[in-house]
Amino acid sequence: MELANQQGGAEVGGVRRPVKLILVDDKSDGPTDERAVEELVGQGVDVMLGTFGSSLVEKGSAVSEKLKVPYVTGTGASRALYQRGFKYIFGLQAPIEQLATR
């Protein structure tokens, strides 16, 4: 984040925008995560960095989808997350079925 801002921010659509990280504790609770996503988007957040675990990612990403805000998750390996036809969820981890293969 600091490095990106030293370079003028993250480039989005050819424009550099400052980066700000807001951390929220969802208490590993689905409804709390849903409320957190709604509140952050209400504060003007442009991109959501998702929570931990497929069941929580399912909840938060559904809210992000409804509000049309990209939701990036580093976990959430359930294939079902990506079979819902959502346009705003982006996963960084391989599906669970592929994690133990070579």
Count of alpha and pi helical runs: 3
Strand order of the largest sheet: 3-4-5
Shape: globular
The helix content, as a percent range, equals 25-40%
Residues in β-strands, percent = 5-15%
CATH topology: Rossmann fold
Number of extended strands: 5
Average of pLDDT: 92
C-alpha-based Rg, rounded: 15 Å
Relevant CATH superfamily: Response regulator
Could you spell the SSE succession in H and E letters? HEEHEHEE
What's the CATH C level?
Answer: Alpha Beta
What is the terminal-to-terminal distance?
A: 33 Å
The count of domains is 1
Instruction: Describe the main β-sheet briefly.
Output: 3 strands, parallel
Walk me through this protein's architecture:
By secondary structure, this protein is an alpha/beta fold. The protein has one domain: Response regulator (Rossmann fold, 3-Layer(aba) Sandwich), CATH 3.40.50.2300. It is about 30% helix and about 15% strand. A 3-stranded parallel beta sheet has the order 3-4-5. Strands 1-2 form a two-stranded antiparallel ribbon. It is globular, with a radius of gyration of 15 Å.
